[in-house]
Amino acid sequence: MTAAMPPGTRTGDRPPRHRAPRHRCRRVLLPALALGLGTLALAGTAQAAGGCAGKPTRVEQMICTDPDVSALDGELKALFDRIEDETNGIDGETGQVSDPFGADHARWREQVRDACRDTACLKRVYTARIAEVRRTWSQALSDAPPSQQPASSRHPGSRHYVNVRFGFSVDVPGDLVAEPPPDNGDGQAYHSADGSLHLTVSGLIDAAEEGLKSFVASDQKACLRQPPEYLVRKPDWIVFSCTTATGLLYQKTLLQGGRGGAFISLRIRYPASEQARWNAAVAMASKSLRLTGASDPK
């Protein structure tokens, strides 16, 4: 990972890249067993009391016959469905299946849940798993397209930045130090007082008409793991975060105006050892980044 680049270093019209062939992406429909919740399709106390259909395993029998555990199972299933909808799919260029959460959840089912011998154990592991999923995969549970984001209500202690040239805004922690803005007005860079966190938000014209995915792919090359640990792709925005050679990188890029329009990118870099310290700052900036609808990037 290189040091955070001030917005001025990625401005203007970049030299055209070779455009990779475009392929349509399609969703992967997972079988029910991928849920890590067995073959249960139960919800609520009424069905829990009625027993399991088919030939449930020992653990599934305990789940579906205990109302409390069945309710926890239903809550976890709802979280799973939401996260899978955001993170699971097929890479349109490589054809490889990308299902980071499904693989993680399968490991939990086999190594943790299925090791339980009684319902007390199941209640403990389900409660812990739900808390872990909400914490670790919060981006998939909260990210929404810019068009669906409400106007920022200003986070306490935050600084609101508005970019007139590219028509976007974002909230950043108020204690970050603002660096001198670039002359072309494409964005703004910030860093923490101790220099551990670097945050840049900027716009760039898609002069080469390379498209959103190709643009973001160049930044993903810094990730040690491919695909990145967290990756969400939508037609008009992409979010990813990963471990790089020198720390963590979080990036959210919005597409403004379709192919040939502009890219609005938020990049945050910080040491892996300080993830807990900066989690709130990353969430604030990511959730508040939105298009304002007025721009003049030319």
What report would you give on this structure?
Residues 1-10, 138-153 have a biased composition (Low complexity). Keywords: Signal. This is Lysozyme inhibitor LprI N-terminal domain-containing protein. This protein has 298 residues and is α+β, with helices and mostly antiparallel strands. The chain has two domains: 32-142, no CATH class; 146-291, Mog1/PsbP, alpha/beta/alpha sandwich (Protein Transport Mog1p, Chain A, 3-Layer(aba) Sandwich), CATH 3.40.1000. Helices cover 31% and strands 22% of the residues. It has helices at 44-49, 58-65, 67-87, 100-111, 119-136, 138-142, 212-220, 275-288; strands at 89-90, 97-98, 158-163, 168-173, 177-178, 187-191, 198-205, 230-234, 237-244, 247-256, 262-270, 290-291. The strands form three sheets. Strands 5-6-7-11-10-9-8 form a seven-stranded antiparallel beta sheet, sandwiched between helices. It has a three-stranded antiparallel beta sheet with strand order 3-4-12. The longest helix has 21 residues, at 67-87. The protein is elongated. It starts with 43 loop residues before the first helix and ends in a 7-residue tail after the last strand. 32% of the residues are buried.
